[in-house]
Structures are given as C-alpha cells and as structure tokens.
User: Which sequence fits this backbone?
C-alpha cells in the first residue's frame, strides 16, 4: 500500500547504514562488493526520500570507530566516497539538494576533503533537500569539539544553554531527526547523533543495508506514522 498522504511524514530521517560486510559474506562475495552495493543504495534511498517529501536525510557513512578496520578496507572506502561524490554531485545539484558534512574532516585524505568542500560549495544555495553526510563522525567526538569551541570562546558556565550547544554542533541550524533507521538487525545507535536523537523515533530493520530498498523505507515510515510522539509531555 502507498504511504498515506493524510499522515505526517518525518521531516528529518537519520540512517545508520549497517550490514554491507555481512551482506557480502553471506553471498560469498568480497567485502568491497558489499560496500559498493551499499553506496549505490544510499543514492537510491536519498532520491526516493526526496520524492516522498523528506526534507533532511543524514547518512552515517563512516564513524570515528571505523578507523579500527584494516587499512586496505579504509582506503577502499575513502576512494569509494570520493568517486561517489564526483559522479553524483551534478545530479544532486540538479535535484536542488544541499550537501552538508558532519564530522571531523581533518583526518580524511586531502583529495576527499577537497571533493567534499567542492560539493558543499556547489550546492550551498539549494533548497529542496539537505543531505548530511556523517563521515569520520562520532557523537561523543562532536560534543567534545563543541565544548572546546565554547571554552575557546570563553563562555561563562551560566551562559551555557541547550540553544547555545545546538548552535555549535555539526548540525547547527537544523531540526533534530524525527526518525532514525538502523539496518542489519542491530538495535543500538553506535555513537550516532546522541544529543540530537534524544527524542527521535527509532526503527531497527532486520534487512542489511544493500537490500534496504524503497519498500523497506515505506515500511519504516508507516511504522513512524503509527507512533504517538509526546516529546516528554
């Protein structure tokens, strides 16, 4: 059944894209193929989310903890991200979508940093959708960087408020995610938007990310629409 037009859509969806490696292993394929398939799925889901009317998507592409993986896999992922942005940025721009980056980019390869900076510049005035790419992102790292900004700015303790912290996060100016989706059957947030996600609805799918298609997103949104969001009231 199609999504109901009478029910409220989530304005902002966060995606923890998990299960690429397990998807590949279960099919007897190299891990790299799972990552490639997962990246292709990101493109499909973002485009479909925009079609549905979702205004913001945040993709957890690479966490600070992912640096614990092997050097060969990390190098492959960095090149995969770089090629994806280069190949898709024109299409993203033509869809009037704006690219923003969450995370500490200083550790990323210089060539990838330049590609990401270029994507931000090209799309900065686009209005129909915001695509947040969380890369070398960790929620605790984000909070540490935020608090350091406040210390450097010599903010007095009594001046620190939720609003001030929000204004110094990587997501400054954006509403918190209404819905966070994690694939692959894992039921945890893994350092993803811990400040912003305190009132997000959580949806955990058993499906590996490379198999998380339009139908699966419809299912997640329908589940969201069934829930009563009290936000602490």
Assistant:
């Amino acid at each position: 059944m199609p999504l109901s037009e009478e029910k409220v859509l989530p304005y902002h969806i966060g995606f923890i894209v998990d299960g690429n490696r397990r998807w590949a292993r279960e099919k007897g394929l190299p891990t790299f193929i799972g990552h490639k398939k997962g990246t292709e799925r990101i493109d499909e889901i973002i485009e479909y989310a925009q079609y549905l009317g979702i205004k913001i998507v945040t993709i957890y592409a690479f966490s600070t903890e992912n640096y614990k993986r092997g050097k060969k896999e990390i190098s492959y992922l960095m090149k995969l991200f770089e090629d994806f942005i280069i190949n898709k940025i024109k299409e993203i721009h033509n869809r009037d979508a704006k690219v923003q980056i969450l995370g500490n980019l200083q550790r990323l390869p210089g060539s990838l940093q330049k590609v990401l900076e270029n994507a931000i510049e090209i799309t900065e005035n686009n209005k129909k959708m915001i695509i947040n790419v969380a890369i070398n992102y960790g929620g605790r790292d984000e909070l540490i960087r935020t608090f350091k900004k406040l210390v450097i700015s010599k903010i007095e303790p009594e001046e620190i408020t939720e609003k001030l912290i929000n204004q110094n996060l990587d997501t400054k100016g954006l509403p918190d995610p209404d819905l966070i989706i994690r694939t692959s059957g894992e039921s945890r947030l893994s350092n993803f938007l811990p400040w912003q996600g305190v009132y997000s609805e959580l949806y955990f799918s058993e499906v590996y990310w490379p198999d998380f298609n339009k139908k699966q997103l419809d299912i997640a949104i329908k589940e969201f629409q069934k829930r009563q969001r009290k936000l602490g009231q």
Remarks:
- The helical segments are 20-26, 31-52, 71-94, 110-123, 139-152, 162-168, 214-226.
- The radius of gyration is 18 Å.
- Strands lie at 12-16, 56-63, 97-102, 129-137, 179-182, 201-204.
- Residues 146 and 165 are 7 Å apart (CA to CA).
